[in-house]
Amino acid sequence: MKLGFFSFLRVLLDGKSSRRFLVGVIGSFAFSIAVILSTIGLMDGFESTLVKSLKKSSGDLILKRGSGFFLFDQAILDLKKLKFVEQVTPVVKIEAFAISESKASGVLVKGIVPSEFREVTDLDMDISDGSIAIGKELAIKYGLKIDDELSLTFASKQKNNQGNPVTRSFVIGSIVEHKVYEKDLRFIYISNKQLLKLLNLKQNTTNTALIKVREYQDLDNLDLYKNKLSKKIDHDFKLTTFWDEYHVLLEAVEVEKFSISLILQLIVIVAIFNIIAFIIFISEKKSQELFLLRVLGINLKSVTKFWMLMLVFLWGISSFLSIGLTYTFDFLIRNLSFFKLPGDVYVLSRLGIDLKIDDYILVFGLSLVWILLIGILSIIKLRRKTLLQGLRQEFS
Predict the structure, then answer these.
(1) What pLDDT is stored for residue 2 in this prediction?
(2) What are the residues facing 292 on neighbouring strands?
(3) Do 38 and 80 belong to one domain?
(4) What is the per-residue pLDDT for 172?
(5) What gap in Å lies between CA 389 and CA 46, rounded to an integer?
(6) How many of the other CB atoms lie within 10 Å of CB of 330?
(7) Do 231 and 276 reside in the same domain of the chain?
(8) Nearest to residue 61, comparing CAs of 201, 194, 238?
């Protein structure tokens, strides 16, 4: 006698109670997998969003000098002759106070060459005609919009200022978003020439240079470019990657992702108990049908095969549904105000789920292992019963 898989499944799931139980089991297992996927995805999303945001505000590599200011001279411009270097641009960074309607806060003013800065960072802003660009969070804090005025106060060491601070008012030409809370709250951009003139600094003076290298596949490649470039610059200069200031945080996220993934296996174990309950329920309720099939000619090997296929089928449906649930969670996290994070605590204000193929393989693989373990245990129990015991439902 031959019996197809779905025919075997219909025998086991005959009756509303069996089907309802199966739906509940699949739902709980899918939810458990989705929770693990979402947690790992949030960790990956935090990492990828932070890395993209940092790169957007700093380019690929950052060049500084230990003694502070230096001349952006031909020696630095010659770095562009290297095959893997696409652009080098000066950025003058000066601390200042932003003042608006009796409110004041410390900011970091960056003097940039707009066209070159856009090539390096992809940040597009309008700071022509003496205007400035401010971060989104600063605009929200002060209730500012484009064409409003903001005063900046700089410390001055020039003799002609007699040590008095320099205060100037500027029109806001652009509001930029870095997606890193502190940068959106503290960064202000002004043209390089205007800032040097305001501070009475020599032309081509700078304290930072941003470097863009050719496209790379992963961050390890950028480290290789950094090492190559370090050999071409004076030992007095320091070269860092764009994520260097947050490298401790990024490493902590990697450790936490691994730890949380292990802990969340407890959720899967809870769902596994539901599957065990379903197997016990089916074994008890459908024992006569199972052993009647054996009496009619279905050997134990075929029953074992059908049983394992049913569990794999259950795993497959649950995994598929978990993907849909994960996308649903992602939509809610990205769009509902309830899930907005305090940026001053978590660096980023919004998170999203970002999953790699390795994450899916890890989570689905572990859940399949749990399912197969249950299948093996249930088959061992099934093999211990004789045909007569099965027909009489005399399970111990």
Answers:
(1) 53
(2) none
(3) no
(4) 92
(5) 57
(6) 20
(7) no
(8) 238
Boundary of a domain, candidates 189, 221, 241: 241
- State pLDDT tens for residues 30-49: 888 888 888 888 888 888 77
Distance (Å, whole) CA 13 – CA 21: 9
Q: At 193, list the tokens.
A: 């020439």
Q: Are residues 231 and 265 in the same domain?
A: no
Cβ(85)–Cβ(213) below 8 Å = yes
Domain total of the chain:
2
| Average pLDDT of the residues in 211-227 | 85
Rounded average pLDDT over 146-151: 91
Range of the domain at 290: 5-53+250-392
Q: Are 75 and 146 found together in one domain?
A: yes
Please report which confidence band the pLDDT of residue 134 belongs to, taking 50, 70 and 90 as the band edges: very high
DSSP helix/strand/coil, 367 = helix
End-to-end CA distance of the chain: 29
Better-predicted residue by pLDDT, 5 or 309: 309
| 224/358 Cα distance (integer angstroms) | 25
Token pair recorded at residue 239: 């070269």
> Which residues are bridge partners to 314 per DSSP?
none
Say yes or no to pLDDT of 109 above 90: yes
Residues 368 and 338 in one domain: yes
Residue where a domain terminates, one of 241, 258, 279: 241
